[in-house]
Amino acid sequence: MLDARRPRQAPGYQVADMESLDGEIVLFHPATQKILYSNRSGALIWGLCDGQRTVADIIQLLSEAYPDSALEIEADVRDTLLTFARQGAIEWV
Amino acid sequence: MRGNLLCVQFGDNAALILCDDHALRQSLRRHLRHCLGDTAPAVVTYKVTLEEDQAVQLLANDELLYRGLRSSCLIEYLMQDLTVALTAHCRQHLVFHAAGLARGENGLILCGGSGSGKSTLAAWLTASGFDFLSDELVAVTPNGGEMSGLARPIGLKAGSAFVWQHWLDETARPNLTHLSNGAVLLDPELLRPRCVRASAHPQILLFPRYAAGEPFTVQRLSTAEALFHLMHRLINAKNLPGHGFAAATHLARQTIAYSLTYADVTSVAEWIEQTDWS
């Protein structure tokens, strides 16, 4: 069921320039003072959460980009999105 | 400056302390001598008086903070309140809950919450040859170019008594101020003369974690990890443009950051000695 859902970046987060952070990401929500860190793969996944792509779309896109890691990507995308959702960084459309 | 007035300066603000009693004023001056100045605007005014019953009274903007017979309590209340007041009004610097040290022009920021060992490490490293900026609050300019500290006396909890027992000889020990909770206030210059420094260039960020019995471990942090930890220690975010996020990002980018887990301050001191600061 998860794979059909469409994640969207939660509003209100400031994002530090990813290039300056070597592809990693730090999200900061001024109103709630919540600060989140994610590694490179998490940063990529977060960047793809546009409310249009489904979870399956994100898995497919990343698997095509990194075919050697396709098996890990599937689990990683789901785990990461669930973590983001728990932390309030994404919403399900 | 009026003779009965002391002005404590930190970041872009100052706190005024009015005290008519000579002996009390001398005691306050002795404790706060490394952070006195008179160029910044005052955001809070304290009035210290010695009452007829010999009780000491401390008012902050005419509100009673302390009344009692112990002058060490007066110092404790005053330092606690002025730390909060100076931070709360600081708008032109990033203020971190951190200790600040320096070697030459190179600044070391030790970021950590209560119990992380900031003061213990600051005291030990000062005695070992580092210059002292603060054991509690560090202010950094938004461009990350300069750091300064609130150079109040180092507050060492009872569990850190080994520091002053190791470094202070018998003649220096009467100069410690013993607080009601077993902690002491220690003038950094008792550890090493002329060790207090006004400013430095931020070079290294350390995020220490004290863990009794655990082995010493060091982890180099990425810029993003350093930023994540820095934002957790940024006290005056709400006063800053964009909550200081961009400025903290800049600071994280231009410094080298490590997280440390330690049980023994000497292992940290030895590791820092071997660390490349360039």
As for the number of domains of chain B, it is 2
* CATH architecture field of chain A: Alpha-Beta Complex
Class from helix and strand fractions of chain A? alpha+beta
Overall helicity of chain A = 25-40%
How many domains of chain A, as an integer? 1
Largest interface: A-B, 16 and 15 residues
Q: Biggest β-sheet of chain A, characterized?
A: 3 strands, antiparallel
Radius of gyration of chain B: 19 Å
What's the architecture of the largest domain in chain B in CATH terms?
A: 3-Layer(aba) Sandwich
The largest beta-sheet of chain A arranges its strands as 2-3-4
**Quick one: CATH class of the largest domain in chain B?**
Alpha Beta
Strand content of chain B: 25-35%
How much helix is in the residues of chain B? 25-40%
Order of helices and strands of chain A: EEEEHHHE
Low-confidence stretches of chain B: none
Q: Report how far the terminal alpha carbons of chain B are from each other.
A: 42 Å
Number of strands of chain B: 16
Oligomer: heterodimer
Question: Can you walk me through this structure?
Answer:
The complex is a heterodimer of chains A (93) and B (278). By secondary structure, chain A is of the alpha+beta class. Chain A has helices at residues 40-47, 55-65, 70-87, and strands spanning 7-9, 14-15, 25-29, 34-38, 90-92. In chain A, a hairpin with a 4-residue loop joins strand 3 and strand 4 (34-38). In chain A, helix 1 (40-47) crosses helix 3 (70-87) and helix 2 packs across helix 3 (70-87). The longest helix of chain A has 18 residues, at 70-87. The two termini of chain A are 13 Å apart. Chain B has 2 domains: 5-88, Glutaredoxin (3-Layer(aba) Sandwich); 94-274, 3-Layer(aba) Sandwich (Rossmann fold). Chain B has 8 helices and 16 strands. Chain B has helices spanning 22-32, 71-88, 118-127, 161-167, 188-191, 223-233, 245-254, 265-274; strands spanning 5-10, 13-19, 42-50, 56-60, 63-68, 94-103, 106-111, 131-134, 137-140, 147-149, 154-156, 177-178, 184-186, 199-210, 217-221, 256-262. Chain B has a 5-stranded mixed beta sheet, with helices on one face. Chain B has a 5-stranded mixed beta barrel with strand order 6-7-14-10-9. In chain B, helix 3 packs across helix 8 (265-274) and helix 6 (223-233) crosses helix 7. The longest helix of chain B is centred in the first third of the chain and has 18 residues, at 71-88. The N and C termini of chain B lie far apart (42 Å). The mean pLDDT of chain B is 94. The interface between A and B is medium-sized, with 16 and 15 residues.
